Amino acid sequence: MSEYRKDPVLNQWVIIAPEKTISYPAIKEQAIPENLPEFDENCPFCKFNGEDTKILLKYDFRNNGKWDLLVIPAPNPFLRVETELQKEGEGIFDLMSGTGANEIIIESPKHNEFTYKMDLNRVEQIFWAYHDRIVDLKNDKRLEYLLFFKEFGITPENKIIHPHSKMIATTFIPAHIELELLSAEDYFSYKDRCVFCDIVKQERKEGIRVISQNEDFISICPYASRFPFEIWILPQKHISHFEMSSKIMFYHLAEIYLDTFKRLNKVLGNVPYHTVLHTSPVQEESLEFYHWHIEIYPILNCYSAPQSGGGIFVNPVKPEDAAKALREATF
Ligand SMILES: [Zn+2]
Ligand SMILES: [Zn+2]
Ligand SMILES: [Zn+2]
C-alpha cells in the first residue's frame, strides 16, 4: 500500500510505495569491490606528496611522522578566497564574483580504508578537521556557508574511492539549507519549539525508526524518507552549529557514525553513498530554531530520484523496514 508522508522539516510530501521485489541481496549488487589494495598508483591521493600543493591542515595523530589526515585545496577550484567579492545586477539578474573555497579532506593515507573499516579515532579526527576548517574560515566574514559532503563511488566521474570528503564555502546559503532554515523558523514561530528537537523526542518515544542511540546522538530513518535507507544522525539536545559541539560530542558522533556505517555495510554491502553535514550558516549566532545533523543517502538500484521535474520523490523502501533491518544487524 502506498502512502503520502509529509516531511515536518521541509513541509514536503513524499510517496512511500514499498515494492515487494526489493530484497537486500539484490541491493548488494551495487557494491564497490572490498578487496582493493592499500595503495593504488593511479590514485592522486595515494601519490600525494605535498609538492605544488598548499596543505591547509595536517594531522599526525598516530605520531609516526607521516600524515594521517590532510586538508588541501581542490586541484581546480571553481571558487577562491583570493577573489574579491563583487556584487552587481544585470537587469533582473544578480551576479557575484566567485569568492569562496573548495577543499578536499583526505581522510586516510590508505586507499581502501572505507568508512566502516576505520577506527573510532580516525572518524573522530575527520569531524575535528571539519570543525577546524569552519573555525578558521568563518573569520572570513564574506563566507556565509561551508558545505561538507562525501560522495562515495557515486558516478563514473567520481571514481576516486580513496576516502575523502569535500567542502564548498560560499558567499550565499545553499538552496536546500535555506529551505530547511526557513521551514524550521516557520515551525518555531508558531510552536515555539525546534522541529528537530520534536523529531528526536517523537522518534525516541516511538522507537520504530530508530537505528541506534548514544548519550549525545540518535540515528534514525526519517518518517518521510525521500530515499531508500535514508538516515539522519541528530544531536539529542538542541544545538544549532556543528562547530559549537562539545569535545565529548565529537567522540560520541564518531561512535554513532561508525556504528551506522557498520550496520549499513552489513545490510547493504559496500554501496555507494552520499553524506552531507547540515549546519547553521557560519556568521549566525546560535539559533533556537535550527539543529545541525548529518544526512546519509545510500545509492541503490532502487534509488528514488525525483520522478518528475516537479520534485516528486517515490521511495520504494518503508523507513520502518529500513530502520528495523539496520537496528537488528549484528557485526
Ligand atoms: Zn588512493
Ligand atoms: Zn533542536
Ligand atoms: Zn537536513
Automatic annotation (TrEMBL):
Name all Galactose-1-phosphate uridyl transferase N-terminal domain ranges. 3-174
What NCBIfam families does the annotation carry?
A: galT_1
Record's PANTHER family? ADP-GLUCOSE PHOSPHORYLASE, UDP-GLUCOSE--HEXOSE-1-PHOSPHATE URIDYLYLTRANSFERASE
Alphabetically, the GO molecular function entries are:
UDP-glucose:hexose-1-phosphate uridylyltransferase activity; zinc ion binding
Record text on cofactor binding: Binds 1 zinc ion per subunit.
Q: Name one GO biological process term.
A: galactose metabolic process
Going by the record, the broad EC class of this enzyme is transferase
Q: Which UniProt keywords apply?
A: Carbohydrate metabolism, Metal-binding, Nucleotidyltransferase, Transferase, Zinc
Q: Where does Zn(2+) bind?
A: C43, C46, H111, H162
Indicate the family of this protein.
Belongs to the galactose-1-phosphate uridylyltransferase type 1 family.
Q: Does the keyword Metal-binding apply?
A: yes
Recorded protein name is Galactose-1-phosphate uridylyltransferase
